[in-house]
Amino acid sequence: MYDPKSMDSNEFISHDEITETLEQAKTEAEDPARVKQILDKAAQYHGLTHREAAVLFNVTSPEILEDVFTLARKIKEHIYGRRIVMFAPLYLSDYCVNKCTYCGYNHDHCMTRRKLTQEELAEEVRILESLGHKRIVLETGEDPVNCPLEYVLESIKTIYSLKFDNGAIRRVNINIAATTVEDYRKLKEAEIGTYTLFQETYHKPTYLKVHPAGPKHNYEWHTEAHGRAMQGGINDVGLGVLYGLYDWRYETVGMLMAAEHLEAAFGVGPHTLSVPRIRTAEGVKAQNFPYLVSDDDFKKVVAVLRLAVPYTGMILSTREPKGYREEIIALGISQVSAGSCTGVGGYASTKKLGFEEHTPQFEPQDHRSPTEMLKDLIGDGYIPSYCTACYREGRTGDRFMRLAKTGQIGNVCQANAILTLQEYIEDYADDELRDMGSQAIARELTAIPNEKVREKAEQYLERIRNGERDLRF
Ligand code: SF4
Ligand code: SF4
Fold first, then answer.
1. Is the distance from CB of 55 to CB of 29 less than 8 angstroms?
2. Which residue CA neighbors atom 5 of ligand 1 most closely?
3. Pick from 219, 153, 148: nearest CA to 185
4. What angle do CA 468, 469, 472 make, to 5 degrees?
5. Which residue(s) pair with 335 in the sheet?
6. Which are the contacts of 468, defined by CB distance < 8 A and separation ≥ 6?
7. Taking a C-beta distance cutoff of 8 angstroms, is the pair 328, 302 a contact?
8. Residue 88 in contact with residue 128, Cβ under 8 Å?
9. What are phi and psi of 383, to 5 degrees?
10. Lowest-confidence range among 116-120, 145-149, 315-319, 403-407?
11. Which of 91, 93, 94, 98 has most ligand 1 atoms within 8 Å of its beta carbon, as the pocket-test mutant?
């Protein structure tokens, strides 16, 4: 039985509802009037139910598929403008008691494990800040002994305490294992941004198979964790699927049902969705997984998600290669990582600062530096944004969603993207990026629809050029 309000994951992620949805969707997709009705609804920016979204998975006509992609691009442009938010992962610890079959940090893999000391963490943060990053995601494996919550809390405190010539890390998002309401409350008190927990797969038999041992084996504990995070006061939570573990249609319907559950039970949906695809890692061969998603199907996933949850951020990591990554960004992605190192101490070790060689959790496919990434994004007509304003201004949870749904957020997003790009130009850019960025800022400034915001943005830009930092809307 499907009951989005239920707190029982076997009900709000009802297997029967997913299979029935996928069956019915095949029939409905054969009716052009029904497909048109769904596209017309999505064009109103009101989103789609999981049942409606599933119909679009079955679209095979190249013309209708192109309509889906065009609409996804239009929705993205309408809600997010041309800004793309930048972030970087920071791996704290690769100790892990779980045995996830797709992960380089699987407990059974023979590797030297480590976690950063607070001094090493400070060095990693210094390098990330010198690359221009203001928003990071902390990543850890699950190990209550070697990586207890107290260590994570201490690390957050260290990061927020660090100040450099050009500023500081302004937002620390967290990607750690499912935990208790009490622990989530402590993370909230530590002023984290978004708490993200990847479901990996919503298909329970597959979930149990790919998580054969360790606390992560408990499907219910894991699947209900976002609800506990919200009960602990964290109102920006992120969902994610690891595409390739099971059928992508099933996973996408499951993720939409999880989003509907959060909306029904807590009045606010997920802040972000992440859409990684399985990659090769230490002891893991991606080609051994039977449900790998083709590039064409993956484009469909991203576009349909954009239509279904227009106000939810969508995150793309460096798992996708340059070229294809651009195609996907255009279809609905709002946040990307750049210059990522996917291992503990990876930034310092890459710079040969005396750290030991690190074992990456997975092999990134996009090796561009942040500067190269910024140039490519600007060249494609986007404004890279280092904005962290909402979380710092208290615009989180339902307050954020209200602004997003009325379209008011677009005004501040655009202005904040321009301001943070100006900061980047002043503090980190080479001559080529400085020229490209200045032209983009001049162009995008005129595109701010609200005159008062535009005028204030002009004043802020002048103040940033004169040395002030962290001005925001
Ligand atoms: Fe551990 Fe996470 Fe890797 Fe699973 S996915 S083995 S929990 S680090
Ligand atoms: Fe994100 Fe808010 Fe900044 Fe827009 S204004 S980029 S929603 S933090």
1. yes
2. 103
3. 153
4. 115
5. 85, 315
6. none
7. yes
8. yes
9. -115, 110
10. 403-407
11. 98
d(CA 402, CA 82): 21
Q: In 166-276, at which residue ranges do the beta strands (DSSP E only) sit?
A: 171-175, 195-196, 237-240, 272-274
Average pLDDT over residues 130-144: 96
User: What is the DSSP track for 280-309?
Assistant: -BTTB-GGG-TTPPPHHHHHHHHHHHHHH-
Residue found under tokens 């496919």: 365
Q: Which atom of ligand 1 is nearest to the CA of 200?
A: 5
What crossing angle do the helices spanning 248-266 and 50-57 adopt, rounded to 10°?
160
- Ligand closest in space to the Cα of 391: 2
- Per-residue confidence band for 352, with pLDDT thresholds at 50, 70 and 90: low
Q: For residue 233, with 0-12 CB atoms within 10 Å meaning exposed, 13-18 middle and 19 or more buried, which class applies?
A: middle
Angle between helices 32-42 and 295-308 (to 10 degrees): 60
Residues with CB under 6 A from ligand 1: 96, 98, 100, 103, 105-106, 141-142, 216
For residue 86, give the H/E element and its range. Answer: strand 83-93
Compute the distance between CA of residue 360 and CA of residue 416 in angstroms, rounded to an integer: 33
Q: What angle do CA 368, 372, 375 make, to 5 degrees?
A: 140
- Amino acid at site 19: T
Q: How far apart are CA 100 and CA 353, in angstroms?
A: 31
Phi-psi map region of 226: left, alpha, beta (phi>0 left; psi -120 to 50 alpha):
alpha
Residue 217 per-residue DSSP state: G
* Torsion 265-267-271-275 (CA) sign: positive
In contact, 87 and 133? CB cutoff 8 Å: yes
Question: What pLDDT, on the 0 to 100 scale, is given for residue 358?
Answer: 66
Mean pLDDT on 275-289: 88
* Amino acid at the residue 386: Y
Task: State the distance from the centre of ligand 1 to the C-alpha of 141, rounded, in angstroms.
Answer: 5
Alpha-carbon distance 388 to 446, whole Å? Answer: 22
> Which residue bears the tokens 């095949």?
26
Which tokens hold the place of 241? 């699927």
Mean pLDDT of the chain: 94
